[in-house]
Design a protein that fits this description.
The complex is a heterodimer of chains A (340) and B (237).
Chain A (H helix, E strand, L loop, with lengths): L4 E10 L2 E11 L4 E6 L5 H8 L7 E6 L2 E2 L2 H7 E4 L10 H11 L4 H14 L15 H14 L4 E5 L7 H16 L4 E6 L2 H7 L2 E6 L2 E7 H6 L4 H6 L4 E3 L1 H4 L4 E4 L4 E4 L9 E13 L3 E8 L2 E8 L11 E7 L4 E3 L7 E2 L3
Chain B lengths: L1 H16 L2 H34 L5 H12 L3 H12 L14 H26 L4 H7 L4 H11 L1 H16 L3 H7 L9 H10 L3 H30 L7
Helix pairs in contact in B: 1-11, 2-5, 2-8, 3-5, 4-5, 4-9, 5-8, 5-9, 6-7, 8-11, 10-11
Classes of the chains: A alpha+beta (340), B mainly alpha (237).
């Protein structure tokens, strides 16, 4: 099947350097692709380039498999930018404004936009002044406005970034239901792997303007291709071979690394590295323990308080759960559980 | 104090009885200043938008020039326009000096930097991604620009009012390029100056009051129109 939107050899230049370079990317109808990356990785630049909202250094944007022209992209794409910008006026007028921008008469646009306010749980806000909305309400209206135009390609640039946890969860749930019913090709920009896991069929990892890994979301989130990808998806502890004695670099999530008090034996099915406790930080229900090793700092997350004997300055062993860690290689996506 | 009190009383008498000379001067003032403001808007709106929204070499210098122009003494602008329109000047062949058209040219030149600088400021107040967001919803450039103007309508209106205020109240340029010719180029400000110099304080005060009333009426009308639209949606929280 022909992908709905994509690009080939796409590059964007800014400030005298190339900030984005993507060989190929395709998103099909009915599919949601998450673009996951750290701040400044080029996520917003990528989606703006795909929507022809920014100029390209080189490359082709494809719409339905053909090089895209501006008018066709304008008609196919609707985007919710990182900072939702609503216009002066009522919520209803804002929800309709995408349709008005496309030339519909105001009355018709209001009529068509109304169901989308309902679907996104913002119908009771319809008569309110858009300038008085909370962050979550504003984002709901911005989403309704984009969905109301019936886009064939929907671009969501960190739509949940500024929301509190509860509002974010509610909105993700509502959006999940909405997207499931649409045949839209959706690109979700995020730096949060939970959002990708909740909404995206596939996930692409963007590091320093390049796509490092792309695949099924469950695979990408569980089997990072290299150390940069690993950090992006939560395997923030990177243990080089000289630290573990293993072949290849091992990556592990903090919750799978446990400091072992002096005199205790490490749990089974773990491998051990040694270090010195830098600090213990209670985080409410869990405690983060930072341990310095010869190859850098390791973060450990333990349930409850720090175990006895784990105090700043103490020399400890850190047990890394073998089955939950991954071995990454520099170039290929050769991934396997680490073996002690 | 007596002079002021009697002057105001005489002025009110003149206004109530509908002095034909005053009416004629008022109408000419309105025509000249309104036309000059419209010309300034026609020039200042695109110029202000250009400076606010586009990046080009010399942009900051252009903005600084517009800001400087806001403080340009009308008499200096009157001098430039007089030299331009003088019989032996570059535009002398048109024979415009001492006509209402010359006054419109001078006043438009005074108001254009004011409008340009305030339009630029008005448009820069809107989120810089506003146009991109409208385009991201499918707007053409023209529609996105129209939406931007609507979004910034209150400060844009202020730019127009400031332009009108700058020209309706100035006297130097009107005097220099118009010549204060009775029945032809005499406007409220030049008439007030002349009346004062003749010691006809009641007449001068009457002109001053009409001028104030005129400026207030125009600005009140525009303000009410803008505020009515901007407060239509009511928060129902």
């Amino acid at each position: 099947m022909t992908p709905r939107i994509g690009c080939r050899d796409l590059a964007v230049r800014a400030g005298g350097r190339t900030i984005l370079s993507v060989d190929a990317l395709d998103v099909g109808a009915g599919e949601t692709l998450a673009v996951l990356g750290a701040n400044g990785a080029g996520k917003s630049t990528l989606v703006r380039a795909l929507a022809l909202l920014t100029s390209r250094e080189r490359g082709t944007v494809l719409l339905d498999g053909r090089p895209a022209i501006r008018a066709a992209v304008r008609s196919a794409v609707a985007a919710v930018l990182q900072r939702p910008i609503l216009r002066r006026g009522t919520v209803a007028a804002n929800a309709a404004s995408g349709l008005v921008m496309r030339g519909l008469r105001r009355a018709e646009a209001l009529r068509r936009a109304e169901p989308w306010l309902h679907r996104l749980g913002a119908a009771d806000l319809a008569d309110r002044d858009a300038r008085g909305l909370s962050g979550g309400e504003t984002q709901r209206v911005a989403l309704a406005r984009a969905l109301a135009v019936g886009p064939r390609v929907l671009i969501l640039d960190e739509p949940f970034a500024a929301l509190d946890a509860t509002t974010r969860t509610d909105l993700i749930a509502d959006l999940q239901v909405v997207l499931a019913d649409l045949g839209t090709a959706t690109i979700l920009v995020t730096h949060d792997r939970d959002e990708a896991a909740a909404l995206a069929d596939r996930t692409a990892l963007l590091v320093d303007g390049s796509l490092r890994q792309i695949g099924a979301t469950s695979t990408v989130l569980d089997q990072p291709a290299d150390a940069d990808c690993a950090r992006l998806v939560g395997f923030t502890n990177v243990l080089p071979p000289e630290l573990t004695g293993l072949r290849g670099t091992v990556v592990a999530r903090p919750e799978h690394c446990t400091p072992v008090p002096p005199g205790d034996s490490p749990p089974p099915d773990t491998f051990v590295t040694r270090g010195r406790v830098d600090r213990t930080v209670p985080l409410g229900g869990v405690t983060r323990i930072d341990v310095s090793t010869d190859a850098g700092s390791l973060a450990c997350l333990v349930t409850g308080e720090a175990p006895d004997g784990i105090t700043p300055g103490a020399t400890v062993a850190v047990a890394v759960a073998a089955e939950r860690s991954r071995t990454v290689h520099d170039a290929a996506d050769l991934v396997a559980p680490a073996r002690p | 104090m007596d002079v002021l009190g009697e002057g105001i009383a005489d002025a009110l008498r003149l206004l109530v009885t509908g002095d034909s000379g005053t009416c004629q001067i008022t109408l000419l003032t309105l025509r000249v200043s309104a036309t000059a403001t419209l010309v300034a808007l026609a020039a200042g709106l695109p110029l202000g938008a250009l400076v606010a929204l586009r990046r080009f070499p010399g942009r900051r210098i252009a903005l600084a020039a517009a800001n400087t122009g806001m403080g340009m003494p009308p008499v200096v602008m009157g001098l430039f326009v007089t030299v331009l329109l003088w019989r032996s000047g570059p535009l002398g062949a048109f024979g415009l000096l001492y006509t209402p058209t010359a006054m419109i040219i001078a006043q438009a030149a005074i108001a254009t930097p004011v409008v340009t600088a305030l339009v630029a400021a008005a448009l820069q107040q809107v989120d810089p991604d506003f146009g991109t967001q409208m385009a991201a919803l499918g707007a053409t450039r023209l529609r996105a620009f129209g939406a931007l103007l609507v979004e910034a309508r209150l400060p844009l209106l202020a730019a127009g009012m400031a332009g009108f205020g700058a020209v309706v109240s100035e006297v130097g340029a009107a005097m220099m390029v118009g010549g204060n010719i009775e029945g032809q180029t005499r406007v409220l400000t030049t008439a007030a100056v002349l009346a004062t110099s003749r010691g006809e304080f009641a007449l001068a005060i009457a002109f001053g009051m009409v001028l104030l009333g005129l400026a207030f009426a125009v600005n009140l009308g525009l303000t009410l129109a803008a505020q009515r639209r901007s407060t239509q949606p009511r928060a129902a929280r």
